[in-house]
Amino acid sequence: MWTLPRILVNKILSHAQRSVPRECVGVLSGHGRRASAWHPLTNVATDESRFLADPGEQIRLFVSLREAGSEVVAIYHSHPRGPASPSATDLEQAWHPEALTLIVSLDTAGRMEMNGYLLRDGRVEAQELTIED
Q: Can you give the pTM of this predicted structure?
C-alpha cells in the first residue's frame, strides 16, 4: 500500500487541470511507500498527448533529493483525454521501476480519477493507494 497526503493529491490534480490540453508530469518524494513532498516538472514534449520532464529540472531535483536523503516515491502524469491507466507509451518509457506511477485522468464525467501502478519489465501491477488527511 502507498500512502499519499491529501494535500499532495490536490496539488497533482490541480497541476493536471492547469496543464490541459497537455499532459502534466512531476515527482513525489519521501521514503519507502510514503510520499511527503510534491515536485512539479515542466513537460517539454512537443506532442501534447505525451510527457517528457525537462531533463535539467529532473537532474537538479534528483541531486537535491539525494543530498536531502529523500527518495523518489512516485512519478505522476496526466491523461487529459484518456483513462487513468498506462498507455503503451507509458510502458515503453517507464524509467523508474521501483517508483509508483500515478496517472490522473481528466476524461471522466465531471470528476477526476487517479490510479497507481508499478511498471516493470513491460508488466502493469495495479497498486492500492491510501490518501491521508
A: 0.94
